[in-house]
Design goal:
alpha+beta, 2 domains, five-stranded antiparallel beta sheet, two-stranded antiparallel sheet, 7 strands, elongated
Length: 127
């Protein structure tokens, strides 16, 4: 039996994950269950055609692989609802407001610290 290989497309990554040729020419995947397996002869020939396609021994890649969770399939709200858990609501952080010390109108940060003073009354708000 000949050695089996995955083909990596080394032009890009998804996070830290390698991209492998998908089964039945269906693009690229980080999921080894969806990656095509090739003979050594085909994998080496493909690397000769395009040097960014890297052959990796299947046995080696399988030994260093780890499970991962794709966030687009994890619906944390649904999962926790079924577990009867309610997440704590994050504390709201109030956005800082800027008011003219002299006339009291609201100003954006840039206008508040402007050397030319308040646009309405001309008063300086500089420290």
């Amino acid at each position: 039996m000949s050695e089996l290989f995955y083909l990596q497309d080394s032009r890009s990554y998804v996070g830290n994950d390698m991209l492998f040729w998908g089964k039945k020419n269906r693009g690229y995947t980080t999921n080894l269950d969806k990656a095509e397996v090739y003979t050594k002869e085909f994998a080496v020939a493909q690397n000769r055609r395009r040097d960014t396609d890297i052959p990796w021994p299947k046995e080696y890649i399988d030994s260093v692989a780890r499970p991962a969770v794709d966030m687009q399939y994890a619906h944390i709200k649904d999962a926790l609802e079924n577990a009867d858990i309610k997440l704590a609501k994050p504390e709201k952080i109030r956005k800082e407001t800027y008011r003219c010390y002299h006339c009291g109108i609201f100003l954006n940060k840039y206008d508040y610290y402007s050397a030319s003073g308040c646009k309405k009354c001309g008063g300086s708000n500089l420290p």
